[in-house]
Design brief:
CATH superfamily of the domain at 40-51 and 83-233 in chain B: P-loop containing nucleotide triphosphate hydrolases
Shape of chain B: globular
Largest interface: A-B, 24 and 27 residues
Bound molecules: adenosine-5'-triphosphate, magnesium ion
Number of helices of chain B: 8
Largest sheet of chain A: 6 strands, mixed, barrel
Strand content of chain B: 25-35%
Number of domains of chain A: 2
CATH architecture of the domain at 40-51 and 83-233 in chain B: 3-Layer(aba) Sandwich
CATH topology of the domain at 40-51 and 83-233 in chain B: Rossmann fold
Distance between the termini of chain B: 22 Å
Structural class of chain A: alpha+beta
Oligomer: heterodimer
Strand order of the largest sheet of chain B: 6-7-8-3-9-10
CATH class of the domain at 40-51 and 83-233 in chain B: Alpha Beta
Helix content of chain B: 25-40%
Amino acid sequence: MTFLQLARRNTWRKPIRSLLLMVCVAVAFLIYGLTASFTSGTQSAVGASDDILGVMNAAGRAQPLPMAHMARIASAPGIASVAYMSRLRGFVDNERNVVAVSAVDPGLLIAVNGSELGLTPELIAPLGKARDRVLVGRALAEAQGWSVGDHINVTAFQVAREDGSRDWRFEIAGIFAGESPSSDTYFMIARYDYINAARARDRDTADAFIVRPRRSVPSSELAARIDALFANSVAPTRTQSEKQFLEAFLRQYADVGLIVDLVVGAAFVTLLMIVINTMVFAVRERTFEFGVLKSLGFSRTSILSLVLTETLFIFVIGGGIGLALAKLATLFAPPTLGLVFSLSILVKAAAIMLALGLATGALPAVNAMRISITAALKTR
Amino acid sequence: MTDSTKDEAYIALKNVRKSYKIGIEPIPIFSGLDLTIPRSDFVAVMGPSGSGKSTLLNMLAGIDLPDAGELRIGGNRLDRMGETARSAWRAHNMGIVFQFYNLLPMLNAAENVELPLLLKPLSARERRVRVGKVLDLVGLSGREKQYPAMMSGGQQQRIGIARAIVADPELLLCDEPTGDLDRKSADEILDMLRFLNRELGKTVVMVTHDPQAALYARRTLHLDKGSFVEENRAA
Ligand SMILES: Nc1ncnc2c1ncn2[C@@H]1O[C@H](COP(=O)(O)OP(=O)(O)OP(=O)(O)O)[C@@H](O)[C@H]1O
Ligand SMILES: [Mg+2]
């Protein structure tokens, strides 16, 4: 027997009670694991790049910028490459099945953003064969059940064709996977020249220019420089990193992170109360035994660590189960949810587990530590 | 033994005062108790209920402290030690045997005996060897895996003794070790204590109500109204 085994033996004194506590801990960490996977996935800005800049109209995202901006941005010092993009939002089959189409020059896009999107020259080559060809992101393709060669029809919300119709037909020429599982791939890439030639309004404009700064150039500095270029033009710009943009975009609807933190925080606080309460009672029940241990020469510190080990044990087992379930859920969840159970979530969860284990153990452990031997031995 | 004066006072209490507060009134238990016990003595302490026998034993174990006076055991001033120092002292210098055995119910016989060894820097192997040895000594080898609830009182008390001596302490304190046992089991336990005193040289202080038990000791102290009133020396 070791000290650790002694603590473990105490944990299993009341198996049902310990199991229930572990279930509580498991549920809390399952909630944590899922929500953290959610915010770290495509729904959040975590996977977004800090380097790449997006230049948009200062008057609002819905306002396009003249294509003439392109040349002036490209000539600014510190820029490695620039691409332009028009965004077309619409739906497939029914109005709730929303998809986004980015209309670009694939050759320019690959230079700016190719590695993040997982674009290769071989992948974009088939786009050259016909103007209505598109590349579909893997998350979108999997969610819709599309494969290469399929013909799809996107009904745009805004962008109408010259003939008044809002239906755009595309042929899927390939599927791009993104650089990592957290890359946003729930959209498709179409040819700008196709959409630009056919649309009724806003011809020869772009919704955004995408800029990759040169290696040594800080992106925030470059952003300020670009905005200065157009400060007095008819269409002033607002330049942000992709990450800043996404964060601002998410905050528009609600501070998702804050809500998640509140939910998870509430779960953890409840957990804290339950475990503290249970452990305080467990220690009180065993007052006599702690008295015996102390009479044998167990010090205050060893009694303290005995109880702390016991609560940590409950948290490590319960938390481990909860996180394993969360990981399992991310494996089986549909890709549209964009759950990513990253290593950093695991590390953070382990830290929380440790902190909560110690925090909940503290009060009962101090109680046990302070038990007077003579009084404890009388409780028999 | 070269230094007999030092040995004479392995345990020395000088002018020990102890009282308990019940309400506001402090009730004195000892008001100036003196006691010396030489090394390797076997002392029985008798006296009416409430005379302070357990209080005395608890002070000798370092789990209770005198209000005033000196409490010296083997050169250590227990009354001047902090709680942490006293638990370390307990772990290394004394074993304690209780009337109701005080075994931990979730541990089997071997694990109960092993408990004090967790406080020592021993390997699992060394611990196992030592536990085996003392279980053999108390005649319970082969019952390592048995839980206290499955044992008779006499067997449980033997486990209690094994636990008290497993760390090989010099001092053995017993508070009515046979108080809950039938005559036959009691005599077995008392034989064991006598063996530990005579053959292994342990200093034994035993509180008892049983005059027959006291006969096993080398001498008997009678405690009444806070002081020792008489002393019988065994022949
Ligand atoms: N923690 C305490 N608080 C208050 N009074 C106490 C406490 N412990 C002991 N006493 C009192 O001190 C006196 C001596 O108690 P002690 O337990 O030492 O007696 P004892 O001689 O062992 O008696 P018994 O033979 O019944 O075991 C008793 O009157 C008891 O009520
Ligand atoms: Mg008593």
